[in-house]
Design a protein that fits this description.
The chain is α/β, with parallel strands linked by helices. It has helices at residues 43-51, 73-79, 94-99, 115-127, 143-156, 173-189, 201-207, 225-228, 231-238, 260-267; strands at residues 3-14, 18-28, 32-36, 58-63, 66-67, 80-83, 161-165, 193-197, 210-215, 218-223, 242-246, 253-257. It has two domains: 1-64 and 160-239, Rossmann fold, CATH 3.40.50; 89-158, no CATH class. It has ten helices and twelve strands. It has a six-stranded mixed β-sheet, with helices on both faces. Strands 2-1-4-5 form a four-stranded antiparallel β-sheet, covered by helices on one side. A two-stranded antiparallel sheet has the order 11-12. Helix 4 (115-127) crosses helix 5. The protein starts with a strand and ends with a helix. The mean pLDDT is 90. Bound molecules: adenosine-5'-triphosphate (ATP). It holds the Pfam family ABC_tran. Keywords: ATP-binding, Nucleotide-binding, Translocase, Transport. Part of the ABC transporter complex HmuTUV involved in hemin import. Responsible for energy coupling to the transport system. This is ABC transporter ATP-binding protein.
Length: 268
């Protein structure tokens, strides 16, 4: 099996306050893998370790076969691009923001982007549907448009691996679907390896080849959506009563929450 990311016995955290431990999993090349789990389970902490923002206390992370610990920031940025939960950009145009994705490829002391940089940025602004708005400042965009700009910038990095931390968290269903359909298309057409943190279990199920479910800093279960999104797993990890059924079109598991009112009526 060809893996883009390999994680073995990973341990890291924040000064005894919170630690993820014994995390081992592989992200298969060309697949869309999602990390799910309740608030505070350690999803972003795991991402920070993969992206080098948080030191690893134990274990190894290999990116395309190379120990991530031995990679420079620039080398890592040529292998994986990140879309964070919140987009931090204010008085900068969309175009300049997206062009920042070319920085890992700039020669030392290079001040200006090349024609090729512009061409790559244009292609990705068109792909994400923000080309017409490219002169607008980032702080004049809606949350959804900012997310699209962040994805355009990540794609402009031209990496084989894309990491997204809750890219749809503040979006309505139409923007959620637009972003996830785009990510899925890139995954399928360009063999992009995608690792996604996502809260919505139904979207995770619909779009992912594989799910990794975290609970309290460890992997509770992993596998296909059918294997992971079971009634038992969801109740034990989220402490919430649900019913799971199949999506009539895609066949993927669908999760229906059950309110206390209906639960108690049916169990009386
Ligand atoms: N910089 C930090 N210093 C200390 N503790 C932190 C820090 N960042 C996060 N934590 C703690 O680590 C734990 C895991 O946080 P993390 O952000 O990884 O969870 P998460 O699964 O991504 O949660 P969410 O779904 O709410 O985004 C939480 O208890 C959080 O309070």
């Amino acid at each position: 099996m060809d893996n883009a990311i390999e994680i073995e016995n990973l341990q890291c955290g924040y000064n005894h306050k919170f630690t993820i431990r014994d995390i081992s999993f592989n992200v298969e090349r060309g697949k869309l893998t999602s990390i799910i789990g309740p608030n505070g389970a350690g999803k972003t902490t795991l991402f920070r370790a993969i992206t080098g923002m948080l030191p690893v206390q134990q274990g190894t992370i290999r990116i395309n076969g190379t120990d991530a610990f031995r990679m420079t920031h620039k080398a890592r940025a040529k292998q994986l691009a990140i879309v964070n939960q919140t987009v931090e950009a204010d008085f900068i145009s969309i175009e300049d923001y997206v062009l920042m994705g070319r920085l890992p490829y700039h020669a030392p002391l290079q001040l200006f982007e090349s024609k090729e940089d512009y061409a790559i940025a244009e292609k990705n602004m068109r792909l994400t549907g923000i080309w017409e708005k490219r002169a607008k400042l980032m702080n004049q965009l809606s949350g959804g448009e900012q997310q699209l700009a962040a994805i355009a910038r990540a794609l402009t990095q031209q990496t084989e691996i894309l990491l997204l931390d809750e890219p749809t968290s503040h979006l309505d269903i139409s923007h959620q679907m637009r972003i996830l359909n785009l990510v899925q298309r890139l995954n399928q057409e360009q063999n992009l390896t995608v690792l996604l943190i996502i809260h919505d279990l139904n979207l995770a199920s619909e779009f992912s080849d594989r799910l990794i479910m975290l609970k309290e800093g460890s992997i509770h279960s992993s596998g296909t959506p059918e294997e992971v999104l079971t009634y038992d797993n969801i109740e034990s990890v989220y402490d919430t009563l649900v019913i799971t059924q199949s999506n009539p079109l895609s066949g993927k598991p669908c999760v229906f929450p059950v309110s206390d009112k209906h639960h108690f009526i049916n169990t009386k």
